[in-house]
Write a structure and sequence with these properties.
Layout: H1 5-33, H2 40-63, H3 67-88, H4 93-97
Helix pairs in contact: 1-2, 1-3
Length: 101
């Protein structure tokens, strides 16, 4: 059992990062595999429901540990998404987080 709030926040942050990898990695695999599928609509919807089911179900389980754990997991999920977009998609970090010039 996790007693320390710091340990809980660090573990939740790591879980959020892993959920982001699963969710957006699954999205990347879906986009990559979609042209090769025999039944693309079914593949797309199965992937969509699977990714969101895992992500939302995991966040629902994290909610049982309180607000700090949930906020930390969301932060890990969001930061990895932001880093990935800015690094691999050619989108600047300021556009990802919403700052406009």
């Amino acid at each position: 059992m996790i007693n320390s709030d710091l340990m809980l926040a660090i573990a939740s942050f790591g879980i959020g990062v892993m959920l982001s990898v699963i969710h957006f990695g699954g999205l990347w695999l879906t986009v990559w595999m979609l042209p090769r599928c025999e039944r693309p609509r079914m593949f797309f919807w199965a992937s969509y429901l699977g990714r969101y089911g895992i992500t939302l179900g995991s966040f629902a389980q994290i909610m049982k540990f309180g607000g700090l754990a949930l906020a930390s997991a969301f932060l890990g999920f969001y930061l990895l998404r932001t880093f990935t977009l800015s690094r691999y998609c050619g989108v600047g970090l300021s556009e990802v987080i919403g700052f406009k010039r």
